[in-house]
């Protein structure tokens, strides 16, 4: 099996995730604002659930953003690991090529 990924794939993914984090907070605030006209229209369990969501909206936003920050940390770590592995591969290849006897591998009749 071959795994091939461009050198900028993970950094591009990280940039997209950062944008998603901002978008998520905005969307939650928009949801809360859109629900404002419904306040006071519920009774019973519906009212309790609505009030709980509204009261916990900052907590919910923080929890979701915390999760996205963990994803960003993982993406950053993977990007670093892939970059380090790529550099080590190049260094190892260069070192081994320097010590190789390419003349001994010639198949000419001379």
What does this structure look like?
There is one protein chain. By secondary structure, this protein is mostly helical. The protein has one domain (16-95). It is built from 3 helices and no strands. The relative contact order is 0.11.
Shape category: rod-shaped
Q: What number is the mean pLDDT?
A: 81
Distance between the termini: 41 Å
Described by its quaternary structure, the protein is single chain
Low-confidence stretches: none
Instruction: Tell me the count of domains.
Output: 1
- The arrangement of helices and strands along the chain is HHH
Which structural category fits the helices and strands? Answer: mainly alpha
Question: Main sheet?
Answer: none
Strand content: under 5%
Structural features:
mainly alpha; 110 residues; 0% strand; 3 helices; rod-shaped
Give the arrangement of secondary structure elements.
Layout: H1 9-35, H2 44-55, H3 57-99
Helix pairs in contact: 1-3, 2-3
Quick description:
This protein has 110 residues and is mostly helical. It has helices spanning 9-35, 44-55, 57-99.
């Amino acid at each position: 099996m071959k795994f091939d990924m461009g050198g900028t794939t993970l950094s591009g993914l990280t940039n997209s995730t950062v944008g998603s984090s901002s978008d998520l907070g905005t969307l939650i605030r928009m949801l809360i604002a859109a629900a404002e006209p419904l306040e006071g229209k519920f009774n019973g369990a519906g009212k309790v659930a609505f009030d709980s969501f509204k009261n916990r909206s900052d907590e919910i936003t923080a929890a979701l953003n915390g999760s996205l920050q963990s994803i960003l940390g993982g993406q950053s770590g993977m990007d670093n690991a892939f970059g380090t592995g790529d550099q080590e591969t190049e260094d190892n290849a260069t070192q081994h090529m320097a010590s190789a006897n390419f003349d001994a591998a010639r198949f000419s009749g001379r």
